[in-house]
Amino acid sequence: MIEDTETIDEFLARHSADVEEAVRKAAAAEIMPRFRQLGAHEVDQKNGPHDLVTDADRNAELYLTQALAALLPGSVVVGEEAVHANPATYEAIQGDAPVWIVDPVDGTRQFVHGDDGFCTLVALVRHGVLLASWTYAPARDQLATAVRGGGAFLDGERLFAGPPEPGRDLRVATSHPDYTTDEQKRALLGLWTDGVAPRACGSAGLEYLAIARGELDATAFSWEAAWDHAAGLLLVEEAGGAHLTLDGGPFRVTGGNSLPFTAARDAATARRVAALLSGAGPR
After folding, report:
1. HSE of 49, CA atoms in CB hemisphere, 13 A
2. What was the pLDDT predicted at 179?
3. Quick one: CA dihedral 204, 28, 65, 237, positive or negative?
4. By CB neighbour count within 10 A (0-12 exposed, 13-18 middle, 19+ buried), where does 222 fall?
5. What share of the chain is helix, strand, coil (3-state, %, to 5)?
6. Buried b (16+ CB within 10 A) or exposed e, 147-172
7. Of the candidates 56, 79, 101, 78, the residue with the CA atom closest to the CA atom of residue 232
8. Residue 102 forms beta bridges with which residues?
9. Which structural domains are found in the chain, ordered by start?
10. What pLDDT is stored for residue 42 in this prediction?
């Protein structure tokens, strides 16, 4: 059993490549053979037509659950599909053990439709602290990684988000209206103002990667499922970005966040978007 953060750091130094291998093998075995090959019997709805699950999601999560737990004895895995089957398993994020947070196919809707805009997300967390993350887009053969205090990388190249270019509209990816309350819809309307160019988001993990690469300025998301955000938030942080909830604090993977929240290329942009969401910015 891992006892403290220092020994987790040692684990990451020894085994980051093993985690990467597990993510790649899960995608090669369970996801890519089904890409653009899905049968109708392999696709189900969970909570409506925009919330899909496939055999690729289920099988890739099972693969990663076994592989990651074996790599780090004493750790637990919180995966999207396992939580859907038994919501009580989400509570492990609040516990003392190191937690692997897994989204086997982030962007399932895109995956089902044959779009390459999907990815596999893995994050290692303990006591609510994001320690490491892996974002793998198998159809694009892109792997982004981050380690707390060690930087963010895409295919081995260091990522620096940097501030947005002066004088142009902020590019902001926002939640799908189906996943927002009336109050959150009103908050998101704050982005429909001069100087901002909002659009609907795709895969959350790839939107975070776009921020870390400086291709997107910010997100405005209204849900807090840790598997969608944990990996990407660390990637953004380590690329020099920031994230804020409506109460002015950073997003917490343990939950209880004031929503919507934003992640952005730099702290100034995060403050600007958060102000618009809270109604304190210009309209």
Report:
1. 1
2. 73
3. negative
4. buried
5. 40, 25, 35
6. bbeeebbbeeeebebeebeeeeebbb
7. 101
8. 79, 122
9. 5-158 (3.30.540.10), 170-278 (3.40.190.80)
10. 74
Q: What is the pTM of this model?
A: 0.93
Q: 194 burial class (0-12, 13-18, 19+ CB within 10 angstroms)?
A: exposed
What count of residues does the chain have? 283
Q: Is residue 103 part of an annotated ligand binding site?
A: yes
> What is the model's pLDDT at position 88?
95
Residue 80 is labelled as binding a ligand? yes
Distance of CA 140 to the CA centre of its chain: 17
Instruction: Quote the pLDDT of residue 62.
Output: 97
Cα–Cα distance list, 265 to 76, 115, 139, 155, 209 (Å): 31, 26, 25, 20, 11
30 vs 120: CA distance, rounded Å: 11
Q: Is 106 part of any known ligand binding site?
A: yes
How far apart CA 250 and CA 261 sit, in angstroms, is: 9
